[in-house]
Amino acid sequence: GNKALMIFEESVKVEAGRRGVEHLGTWNMSVQSNKFDGVHVDLKGNLIKAMMLINWLNLLEVEKH
Description:
It is a single chain. The chain is an all-alpha fold and 65 residues long. Helices cover 62% and strands 0% of the residues. The protein has 3 helices and no strands. The chain has helices at 2-19, 27-31, 43-59. The longest helix is centred in the N-terminal third of the chain and has 18 residues, at 2-19.
């Protein structure tokens, strides 16, 4: 459920920070959306997450070779 997802998301964030890796959490967005089975968001929710990911990737600094 939501609590397990929140705990997992937080542990991934901590571990990513420990390794110096950026982390894009989506739990806070997911907890406020409708879930058809109580866990998974619908197509609209996943499209919003995909757009968020594309926008986040666009902000990353990338070395050009």
